[in-house]
Amino acid sequence: xxxxxxxxxxxxxxxxxxxxxxxxxxxxxxxxxxxxxxxxxxxxxxxxxxxxxxxxxxxxxxxxxxxxxxxxxxxxxxxxxxxxxxxxxxxxxxxxxxxxxxxxxxxxxxxxxxxxxxxxxxxxxxxxxxxxxxxxxxxxxxxxxxxxxxxxxxxxxxxxxxxxxxxxxxxxxxxxxxxxxxxxxxxxxxxxxxxxxxxxxxxxxxxxxxxxxxxxxxxxxxxxxxxxxxxxxxxxxxxxxxxxxxxxxxxxxxxxx
Length: 257
Fold this sequence. Notes:
alpha/beta; five-stranded parallel sheet
């Protein structure tokens, strides 16, 4: 647990005791208002298990128009985010580059993939600084100076890094101890075991003539667990052969240990 005071141009953040502290640097902070005030993310913050501070990049921009971008050297289409406002915003944080259990990341389609393994790794941190790009990207010099890692949520391009940042925050937050009501939930999610999830059913047992598989009503927990594993294997083999092949290799490796 850590105590922080964060100062920005217009706001003073008060002391809080938290387990996971996110600092989001963005030119469009309003994008975060709705998602951060709903369901799991809202409860995680209310419990003070997670804290998300959204820093408005325009607070650190110069001039009447607070512009954040300029034409790229070498020509070409699009605009590039200038380094100075980003540098000032990052310097304003209480988290320093290279500090233990802290990391500076940039959401970018050119980054490494965000998967469950990466989420598990990131949730061990105390502080995660997330830079959201816009336009054609961020001046490489500020990335070289500050960023520990670039992270991508998929092989496609979005309008900016805000939605990927929300994906990252949600994925990490739900792994923080105490955030989910059922402590077993993260361990049964898709990808937690290397497989996709099994099918789920609830009441009524008969809906429009479609009945819940009998095994789930049997009360035989060992048989139910085996059924769920088999269904997870079948689903993974059907739609994600790459994951299934990796799963089989891991199973074989454990047999040979």
